[in-house]
């Protein structure tokens, strides 16, 4: 299990963790000014009411909840990944605890991994998807952007369901491939932010990527294309592209449709 990731996959996982730091500026700006956005790109979301049918909530509150649930889901999955990679795969959970004291900890760790996984899906995933889709419908106005931003929670849900299905069939390789898909989809926004931040630092104008308080269509297209490339080369690097081609093809098809409706 420890060697199941290729060097390319390991690089993108680490790169994604570093990319999450790109949100520090937005968090600091929110704490100082009470508004969410990416000020370096001239993108600030004004606080306004969001109509949720029976009641109304402020966009600042919903964006704060989105940030919290996104980070919580991401951190929980990384924690699960750590548990997965560092338990002893040779331990047989069916062996009774009394037969060997060393098996107790490993069996407990596996049980915790399963319980934590259920919590992730039933609580964190549900909150993340619901809040993300509400924001997608309420704060994003361009259809292409709605499609390309809406596909992220869909892919995260697909990846976690696939991970559960794989582990129930004792397919650890497919399980971790699905987890990698989830991690990369959750890293879609921070990786794009980091790339844009590097362009900004290099003196390349990036303000054209934000208009009317939301990313331009080009920004959403670039983000989706980056994730497709990352998934393609990552699965190719570990000789598992064929068994993981479905999500890549689906993302490419969604990207094609989004470009067509521009």
Task: Give the helix level as a range of percent.
Answer: 55-70%
Largest sheet: 2 strands, antiparallel
Low-confidence stretches: 89-105
Instruction: Report the mean per-residue pLDDT as an integer.
Output: 85
Q: Distance between the terminal alpha carbons, to the nearest Å?
A: 43 Å
Alpha-beta classification: mainly alpha
Structure description:
By secondary structure, the chain is mainly α. Helix content is 69%, strand content 6%. The chain contains nine helices and six strands. The protein has helices spanning 7-19, 23-33, 59-86, 102-139, 143-168, 172-186, 188-201, 217-237, 245-260; strands at 36-38, 43-45, 49-51, 56-58, 210-211, 214-215. It has a two-stranded antiparallel ribbon. It has a two-stranded antiparallel sheet with strand order 3-4. The protein has a two-stranded antiparallel ribbon with strand order 5-6. The chain is globular and about 50 Å long. The N and C termini lie far apart (43 Å).
Annotation keywords:
262 residues, mainly alpha, two-stranded antiparallel sheet, 6 strands, 69% helix, globular
